[in-house]
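Thread: TXD complex, take 2
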Amino acid sequence: MSRKKIALIGGGQIGGVLAQLIALKQLGDVVLYDVVEDLPQGKTLDIAEAARVNGFDSKLTGTNSYKDIARADLVIITAGLPRKPGMSRDDLLVTNAKIMKSVAEGVKEYAPKAIAIIISNPLDAMVTLFKKVSGFPANRVVGQAGILDSSRFSTFIAWELGVSVKDVNALVLGGHGDTMVPIVRYANVNGIPVMELLERKYKDKIKAAEVMKAMVDRTKMAGGEVVKLLKTGSAFYSPAASAIQMAEAIINDEKRLISACAYLNGEFGVTGYYVGVPVVLGDTGVEKVIEFSLDQEEQALMDNSVNAVKKLVEDMDRLGF
Ligand code: TXD
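Output below.
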């Protein structure tokens, strides 16, 4: 059996970590594409030269030509600028939309059967644009945000409760922006509701609610917190790790139920937009969107987040993308 071919479009911070993780996990052979000359060649050479030490056989190729992504099974797209301190993800719209349009054209021409995972920001709009320009069916175009946002929320809960994050399940839905929706009601540690654990810890419902609100707020702002510290770019280790979980689910047909930016056809009251929702990921891409009942408050937060996504997509349309 030959290895899967995984094309990474964008060889910056996230692209580099993606290439390394794919090799370490032997998920497939990597083609790293970037517009900057020599950059992808240099990164892949560096990673490949550690093959003996890390013990992998994956092949890594760096390129500035779309021809080299021909017939890729999976394409992971990080092309585009990251935020600088003080910027919102939405501030990247115009620059990154131009880049995403050219990427979608390249992928459409050379890897028309691939499944595409989009990472570039503003995420929900970039996924929408890739789908529009590539003409790929909706199940083969998915965005990464929900795994990372959910992982951030889970991490803060684990720190607060002093338990292993491996036992924490906490889902974040909605757009990948400041309006994202951490689902508090179902957050649990091995099935035990987080709110109950907080109430027992603080012996005070109001204090427990305040602690949860602080974790929810930190989750929503977590990307910005890293940007502020790094000063020259945004988070890259955790977004790469999150996209790799999606790549593994697709390549190994794992049917993982995770939060991802998927096309909605009436689910959660939304039609015709890409938004973060629970999906089942397998070897055909998004196999199912999983719906569950939101309570009134959650639905209001979801509606607010969907409206923010709609506004961004409308702005993009108005700008002619
Ligand atoms: O969870 C998430 N979805 C995210 C998304 C979490 C964090 C950051 N996220 C976004 O990913 C971020 O806001 C950016 O839009 C992307 C990529 O972030 P990264 O940190 O990897 O940015 P870099 O290091 O600047 O890398 C971007 C690369 C860089 O090497 C450019 O030369 C390249 O993109 N680039 C292009 N590649 C291909 N084609 C074109 N046209 C192009 N233009 C620039």
